[in-house]
């Protein structure tokens, strides 16, 4: 690691951003699991609410550039397809 004052600051910033991004990615995984479990239970109401929540979180992550915008769009599309297939 570099010893310059600016390099040390950049390192501190990267650690903060890394931890924040990890939290967002974990949250994405959890909400996607909620949608899939609701689909497995064939609970349309629970699946719809979980889908709305997942869509919101995935869009926010894409806006913050935690995940790529197309990756978020693809995941949302697949979740919608799974929920619509159930109904």
Question: Which structural traits does this protein have?
Answer:
single chain, 87 residues, mainly alpha, Methane Monooxygenase Hydroxylase, Chain G, domain 1, 86% helix
How much of the residues is beta strand, in percent? Answer: under 5%
- Regarding CATH, which class? Mainly Alpha
Number of domains: 1
Envelope shape: elongated
According to CATH, the homologous superfamily is Ribosomal protein S20
Biggest beta sheet attributes: none
Structural class: mainly alpha
Order of helices and strands: HHH
Which whole number gives the mean pLDDT?
95
Low-confidence parts lasting 5 or more residues at pLDDT below 50? Answer: none
State the CATH topology. Methane Monooxygenase Hydroxylase, Chain G, domain 1
* Tally of strands: 0
Number of helices: 3
Question: Distance N terminus to C terminus?
Answer: 54 Å
- Helicity level: over 70%
Q: Rg to the nearest angstrom?
A: 17 Å
CATH architecture: Up-down Bundle
Protein name: Small ribosomal subunit protein bS20
Keywords: Ribonucleoprotein, Ribosomal protein, RNA-binding, rRNA-binding
Function: Binds directly to 16S ribosomal RNA.
Organism: Maridesulfovibrio ferrireducens
Your description of this structure?
With 87 residues, this protein is mainly alpha-helical. The protein is 86% helix and 0% strand. The protein has three helices and no strands. The protein has helices spanning 5-41, 44-63, 69-86. α1 (5-41) packs antiparallel against α2, α1 (5-41) packs parallel to α3 (69-86) and α2 (44-63) runs antiparallel to α3. This is Small ribosomal subunit protein bS20. Binds directly to 16S ribosomal RNA. One of its GO terms (molecular function) is small ribosomal subunit rRNA binding. Residues 1-14 have a biased composition (Basic residues).
